Amino acid sequence: MDVVEGRLFLEGRLQKACVGIEEGRIVKVKKVLRGEEHHDFGEMLVLPGAVDPHVHFRDPGQTHKEDFSSGSLSALFGGVTCVLDMPNTLPPVIDAQTLEEKRLVVAGRSWVDYGLFAGLAPRTKIESMSACHAFKVFLGSSTHSVLLQGDDELKRVMREVGATGKVVSVHAEEERLLRRMDEHSLRDHEESRPREAELEAIKRLLPFRGTTRINVCHISCLESLSLLRGSGMTFETTPHHMLLDSSMDLGAWGKVNPPLRRRADREALLAAFCRGEVTMLATDHAPHAPEEKERGFGEAPSGVPGVETGFSMMLALVKRGHLSLDVLLQAACAAPARTFGLNKGEIAVGREADLVVVDPREMRTVKGRELHSRCGWTPFEGREALFPRAVFVRGTLAMEEGSLVAERPGREVPHA
């Protein structure tokens, strides 16, 4: 048995204790333990690893932006020990063959555990996609997305996915309400993808909530929160929708779908998150090469990187007293694990030993050139973050003091 000792987050509070680990799982949690290998982190915090339920690692097809190795390395250095990767790669993962091809491409290359989404297109045979971890629907167009617009097709896939018991995550923007217009600024982009498109898409999902496990991705405005509260559907918001807005001088570096909205939306989402009203934190990590973002605003692609900075910047909010640690760990760890059926997200006997060690005295400034994503930039340049000192993936010490100390421990998580 190996032992990790520090200030553990247990039963809603920090307390000095030890975690006993065997074969990648937590077998004991006690005040004092002895083991073959003892990692004593003193007064540092020992937290569950974050689960990011929404990343785009661009692999296969666009590996000049990111690949599974660089994306998962970025996750590791951000304290994210499991990711769920989206299907809008090239080719899109919308049938059994492309799903199996992607599984083979990424196998053995990840630094953290991962699951793969399958996309739902008009002719997707859902029964053939049992190897995916969850499904994704795009109701509005985004980067290399495959749309599912017709009511009959939406009813069919919701019924068939419901029968599988798997989650379907939805990019909730109604395509018919998106406006084709010349864009020169973040305000233009916001106008081209109005909040009404998000609200109508969520309303369109409400009739299916009793029979299908629906997760609404990256909500961007307060009205969405009002619609979703008490709906029985889970939902995500992102660090960029809580910390950035369309009034900021970001240019195309802040261009995302759904768009950054007004300061009032950003503040309302952050306040709701801090109150524990948002199910999950998800980064929607969507990197693009700098030269792509440096095109004219209208031609620049939508998406920002975030898997390395999201959890770490939210930890900085905890350090500054704006957010409770309990709320953050529920949204970033426990809730995504619970929603997607992962044996992770908590420090408890029987859970996989995904652990993140944080020294709360070590606030650092976010610098794009120091991050590990292939894209090499961040919209959060100059912000403060609490990056981890050490990360364990299923009990294997993978990173410590900024250095890699194990060889790619990540594996595909079991799927139902």
How do the helices and strands line up, and which of them pair or pack?
Blueprint (H helix, E strand, L loop, with lengths): L1 E9 L2 E10 L2 E6 L6 E12 L1 E6 L12 H10 L2 E6 L10 H11 L6 E7 L14 E5 L12 H14 L2 E5 L14 H7 L2 H11 L7 E4 L5 H7 L5 E4 L1 H5 L19 H12 L5 E2 L8 H4 L16 H10 L5 H15 L15 E4 L5 E2 L18 E2 L4 E4 L2 E5 L2 E2 L12
Parallel strand pairs: 1-4, 5-6, 6-7, 7-8, 8-9, 9-10, 10-11, 11-12
Antiparallel strand pairs: 1-2, 2-3, 4-13, 13-16, 14-15, 16-17, 17-18
Helix pairs in contact: 5-6
Describe this structure in words.
This protein has two domains: 2-46 and 350-404, Urease, subunit C, domain 1, CATH 2.30.40.10; 49-339, TIM Barrel, CATH 3.20.20. Helices cover 25% and strands 23% of the residues. The chain contains eleven helices and 18 strands. The protein has helices spanning 68-77, 96-106, 151-164, 186-192, 195-205, 222-228, 239-243, 263-274, 290-293, 310-319, 325-339, and strands at 2-10, 13-22, 25-30, 37-48, 50-55, 80-85, 113-119, 134-138, 167-171, 213-216, 234-237, 280-281, 355-358, 364-365, 384-385, 390-393, 396-400, 403-404. An eight-stranded mixed β-sheet has the order 3-2-1-4-13-16-17-18. Strands 5-6-7-8-9-10-11-12 form an eight-stranded parallel β-sheet. The protein is globular and about 60 Å long. The mean pLDDT is 96.
CATH topology of the largest domain: TIM Barrel
Q: Helix count? A: 11
- Portion of residues within helices: 25-40%
- Computed over alpha carbons, the radius of gyration is 20 Å
In a nutshell, what does this entry contain?
Helices cover 25% and strands 23% of the residues.
